[in-house]
Amino acid sequence: MSTLPEVSTANFEAEVVKANVPVLVDFWAPWCGPCRMVAPVVEAAAEEFKGKMKFVKLNTDQSPDLAGKFQIMGIPCLIFFSAGKEVDRVVGFLTKEALAQKINSILARK
Question: Annotated catalytic residue: which of 21, 29, 32, 87?
């Protein structure tokens, strides 16, 4: 079970758009095998980058409106937001090292 907070249509704006730090949103679904594979990688990154970046999960089955809004065509899909805007995304599995490199590049843009 994930330790990351869940976001949905109800709290997306408050938790992601209005966040005062960059945010990684993990778009996933319970039936998705690759989503379960990438979850521990995202959770490890959340621990490593605590205080520098916010990490949340969004269940695409429970928030299909947001999945549509962000044109999610495949999951897992990790979307990086900064100042309320999408700045990057990764679709599919990636290693802890690749995710850390991506996060460092997002944080360097601030």
Answer: 32
Q: Render pLDDT for 5-15 as a digit per residue (tens, 0 to 9).
A: 999 999 999 99
The confidence score (pLDDT) of residue 49 equals 97
Residue 35 bears catalytic tag: yes
Domains, the chain, with CATH or none:
6-108 (3.40.30.10)
Residue whose tokens read 């408050």 = 14
Catalytic residue among 35, 53, 56, 79: 35
Quote the CA–CA distance of 83 and 109 in Å, as a whole number. 11
- Look up the pTM and report it: 0.95
Q: Are the C-beta atoms of 93 and 38 separated by less than 8 Å?
A: yes
**Residue 77 designated active-site:** no
